[in-house]
Amino acid sequence: MTTHLQDTTALHNGVKMPWFGLGVFKVEEGAELVNAVKSAIRHGYRSIDTAAIYNNETSVGQGIREALEETKLSREDLFVTSKVWNADLGYEATIAAYETSLSKLGLDYLDLYLIHWPVKGKYKEAWRALETLYKEGRVKAIGVSNFQIHHLEDVIEGAEIKPMVNQVEYHPLLSQKPLLQFCKETGIQFEAWSPLMQGQLMDNAVLKEIAAKHGKSVAQVILRWDLQNGVVTIPKSTKEHRIIENASVFDFALTETDMAHIDGLNQDQRVGPDPDNFDF
């Protein structure tokens, strides 16, 4: 049971990944983002998740550097993730994209590099590139994002190295039980993006009732549900009070009944694109 913001899960290669991190999707470059990254690290977060397509790696890197100076932490204390965009899926292009991300972030390595979307006919070549980066010791762990079971099976079939993480849309209205089960059985760590469904769940009656019972917010209940399901979670926020509130989920536990009620909310409803049907 996770009891602390800096608790980690061991990926199948032994690398330790924090259960909880800061997501920065749709946050533009600039002071707001730099300050969000700094305040997250100052308040105990150790994991930051970005992506090439977010166009904000420069500010994320700046926030990391300034936070390290302020806190006297070392780079090794942090877990930084980025993702290769669809336009760069190809062996050489993916390796070049990794270099570009590193250079924007101002880092020597990433802790985790993901293929952002399973573009048909392209992701296997990209996976070969990630394997090369990994074998050369240039990235600590490699994985995928938005992969369904059949995509994972396809990658694993031709891979030397199995993905270590699959980061997907996951929240109480999209609990993806079969995919979560598949990842558990194959030793792939499941990670949630958009865990709060972009704020759409805050008025849900079931969640409000459970939150009231525990003296917690709806967001905290959802994030606790993630953790108790063995799911790494990376809620996005730029506001310091929210960054602190989101992480205050280690001082209570949901009961089995609570968990079952939240599981019962699933409607297979997405806020993001369908990984089997996207055109970008």
TrEMBL record:
<comment type="similarity">
    <text>Belongs to the aldo/keto reductase family.</text>
</comment>
<feature type="active site" description="Proton donor">
    <location>
        <position position="54"/>
    </location>
</feature>
<dbReference type="GO" id="GO:0016491">
    <property type="term" value="F:oxidoreductase activity"/>
</dbReference>
<dbReference type="InterPro" id="IPR036812">
    <property type="entry name" value="NAD(P)_OxRdtase_dom_sf"/>
</dbReference>
<dbReference type="Pfam" id="PF00248">
    <property type="entry name" value="Aldo_ket_red"/>
</dbReference>
<keyword id="KW-0560">Oxidoreductase</keyword>
<dbReference type="InterPro" id="IPR018170">
    <property type="entry name" value="Aldo/ket_reductase_CS"/>
</dbReference>
<feature type="domain" description="NADP-dependent oxidoreductase">
    <location>
        <begin position="31"/>
        <end position="266"/>
    </location>
</feature>
<dbReference type="InterPro" id="IPR020471">
    <property type="entry name" value="AKR"/>
</dbReference>
<dbReference type="InterPro" id="IPR044500">
    <property type="entry name" value="AKR5G"/>
</dbReference>
<feature type="site" description="Lowers pKa of active site Tyr">
    <location>
        <position position="83"/>
    </location>
</feature>
<protein>
    <submittedName>
        <fullName>Glyoxal reductase</fullName>
    </submittedName>
</protein>
<dbReference type="InterPro" id="IPR023210">
    <property type="entry name" value="NADP_OxRdtase_dom"/>
</dbReference>
<feature type="binding site">
    <location>
        <position position="116"/>
    </location>
    <ligand>
        <name>substrate</name>
    </ligand>
</feature>
